Amino acid sequence: MKTTGLVAVPSWDLPVRIFHWLLVALFGAQLYSGTTGGNAMPWHLYGGYAVLTLVLFRVIWGFVGGGRARFSDFVSSPANALRYSKRLFSRQSSHAVGHNPLGGWMVLASLALLAVQAATGLFANDDIATEGPLAALVSKEVSDRITSIHKLNLKLLLALVALHVAAVLYHRWAKKEDLIRAMFTGVKHVPEAVAAAAGATRHASYWLAAILFAAAAAVVSLIVNRPF
Question: Structure pTM?
Fold first, then answer.
């Protein structure tokens, strides 16, 4: 299938797309519950556990998932990312079947900041009635310091989200690459040469994804409930 000189190719697999949109919804819910406080804080904690589960799953899926989901597919060298950035604002096509070099590094940065946010939340407190499930393991002074990191890291996350949205819109209107649609459909339209160079896309078992997600949820549950 061709569209305006481009060929349609499979891109991100279903587990990656579900992860992405669940994370978008959770991030919005976390912002709301965290700023509202009060009765919304228990939901903020549950949301944090869900975010940690998603991040843990995505890290594992980055090693065993489908071809475009793997870190080895989209994490390039800093030098390659720099070369890509130099032609980002040119008229030259910047299509990629999966994440482009800069996008790959943004994925790593996002996962790292989300992991920090979820992990610090486990030890944080709001100085009122809510504290993370592991806050009792450290002193109040340490919990307060971790809470400060939690708040600072949120600002970094918001900046990264703003950059991500700006990049997606730029690719949509300037580069004519509809990343939002591709993240829903799992199909990208790229030049034939780009598709040929990328090769066939291998999708991993969705049953494997479900098992790994359940395992990630179990690990987070063990951390939160500390049964031992």
Answer: 0.92
Over residues 138-168, the pLDDT tens digits come to: 999 999 999 999 999 999 999 999 999 999 9
Domains plus CATH for the chain?
A: 2-225 (1.20.950.20)
Contact call for residues 24 and 50 (beta carbons, < 8 A): no
Contact in structure between 5 and 61 (CB atoms under 8 Å):
no
Nearest CA to 110 out of 51, 36, 173, 42 is that of 51
Q: What is the pLDDT of residues 157-207, one digit of tens each?
A: 999 999 999 999 998 888 888 899 999 999 998 888 888 877 777 778 999
Asked if 9 and 195 count as a contact pair (C-beta separation under 8 A), the reply is: yes
> What gap in Å lies between CA 206 and CA 16, rounded to an integer?
11
Q: How many residues does the chain have?
A: 228
How many CB atoms lie under 10 A from the CB of residue 97?
22
Buried b (16+ CB within 10 A) or exposed e, 188-221: bbbeeebbeebeebebbeeeebeebbeebbeebe
Q: Are 36 and 198 in contact (CB under 8 A)?
A: no
HSE (CB half, 13 Å, CA atoms) of 21?
14
Spatial separation of the C-alpha atoms in residues 176 and 168, rounded to whole Å: 10
